[in-house]
UniProtKB/TrEMBL annotation:
EC number, as in UniProt: 4.3.2.8
Pfam families tied to this protein: GGACT
Keywords: Lyase, Transferase
Family: Belongs to the gamma-glutamylcyclotransferase family.
Top-level EC class as recorded in UniProt: lyase
Underlying gene: Ggact
Biological process annotations from GO: modified amino acid catabolic process
Protein name (record): Gamma-glutamylaminecyclotransferase
UniProt-annotated catalytic positions: E82 (proton acceptor)
InterPro entries per UniProt: AIG2-like_dom, GGACT, GGCT-like, GGCT-like_sf
Keyword Nucleus: no
Example of a GO MF term: gamma-glutamylaminecyclotransferase activity
Entry function: Catalyzes the formation of 5-oxo-L-proline from L-gamma-glutamyl-L-epsilon-lysine.
GO cellular component: cytosol
Length: 156
């Protein structure tokens, strides 16, 4: 099992969460909530109002999201869903645990107790330069006060 941190449309209550609970795509087990140890710019960009975490460490906010344990099948699905490696790149990042529900190995419990876990995160180093000038968010909600409605893939 791999650990993945999601910060956008794959979180609970968001438009693509249905994929995280679709066992035909693999297994994803909610472990808890967290936020990036380093600051990153989280922007909502493009004509479909997609949330992107720009891989510019030290800029922006500590981005909030959810931590999941996923099997290899789900990881392959997420790579494809996220357009990895072209649109997003999957990299390891340190995530501060805010709330832990996960049950697992002693090592996992110890890491959670220490407050920081390593997770795969889909962020991007490939983006139009003007995205750096967009508003930075610390958390994403598709119906947030930003007023930028996410466009589902089925509607594009």
């Amino acid at each position: 099992m791999a650990r993945v941190f999601v910060y956008g449309t794959l979180k609970k209550g968001q438009p693509n969460y249905k994929h995280m609970i679709n066992t035909a795509k693999g297994l994803a087990k909610f472990q808890g909530r967290g936020r990036t140890v380093e600051k990153y710019p989280l922007v909502i960009a493009g004509k479909y109002n997609i949330p992107y975490m720009l891989n510019i460490p030290g800029t922006g906010h500590h981005v909030a999201g959810e931590i999941y344990s996923v099997d290899d099948q789900m990881l392959r699905f997420l790579d494809e869903f996220e357009g990895c490696p072209d649109m997003y790149q999957r990299t390891l990042m340190r995530i501060e645990v805010v709330e832990w529900e996960g049950k697992g190995s002693a090592g996992e419990a110890r890491a959670a107790a220490e407050g920081v876990v390593e997770c795969f995160v889909y962020s991007t180093t490939t983006y139009p330069p003007e995205w750096v000038g967009l508003p930075y968010h610390d958390s994403y909600d598709s119906s947030g006060k930003h007023g930028l409605s996410y466009v589902l893939r089925e509607s594009r």
